[in-house]
Amino acid sequence: MGKPLFYEILEKPATSCAIGICSAIWFYIQKSNIGYSHVGLSYEAAMEGHYWRIITSAFSHISVIHLVFNMSALWSLGVVEQLGHLGLGVWYYLHYTLVLIVLSGMLVVGMYHILIQKFKLEYFRRVTAVGYSCVVFGWMTILSVKQPSSKLNLFGFLSLPISFAPFESLIFTSIIVPQASFIGHLSGIIVGYAVGWGLIHGMNNYWAVTMLGWTVVVFIFSLKKSGTFDLNFLEIEPVTDPSLPSVRFFAAGNGRSLQMSTLPDAGSDLV
């Protein structure tokens, strides 16, 4: 008999939070009738400066089947949080989840760019990717490198050897969810191998906070630049101090003259 669910949640806090966030966003999308084109990542949207979609696309699911598949796999992969004695653990999980979200999204756009510009496949200009699959496939790959003897449990009854799970799941997902993004899943696998093989390493609290900070800054300002939401609080108003002299140039004959004038002080006192 397994552990009660409550204890498993306590042993996988980051995984449980991620599942809760994805599920809540899915519920909100369904209730608000939001389409995948509003939150998904596409080449055209990225070229228009909608960089915020790298984040929103990762946490958004339109199909309940896609959500269940991703969350079931993610729950099984939460074992990473329990492997602190192997150099993994909760903080490792948090640090590299951020890496997987950001780099996988950037890699998706990069692959679209190559397919469009190099191979002239205009179809990929409007393909829109959504879902947490990049992160799920990334963690499958990392675990297959770090713990090749582990098993991946899907839906509570399907068990796959973790060493082959990334590519088996890639095929399995393509069959049961034909609309699933092959390039998105492949991007997660590539970044996962880069992390597992140590090509991307050295993430600690400092670099994670720094990366998160820049991600938030880019997210907010790209959101404002795209005009998707009205973020008036980010407007910077020019300020002119009326107590300071103004300087202006004007033409005088063939040369130029400099004139200074003092604006009237609007109710200010000199001390």
Automatic annotation (TrEMBL):
Domain Peptidase S54 rhomboid: residue ranges: 49-200
Keywords: Membrane, Transmembrane, Transmembrane helix
A matching Pfam family: Rhomboid
Membrane topology recorded in Swiss-Prot or TrEMBL: Multi-pass membrane protein
Chief localisation class: membrane
Top-level taxon: Eukaryota
Name of the featured protein: Peptidase S54 rhomboid domain-containing protein
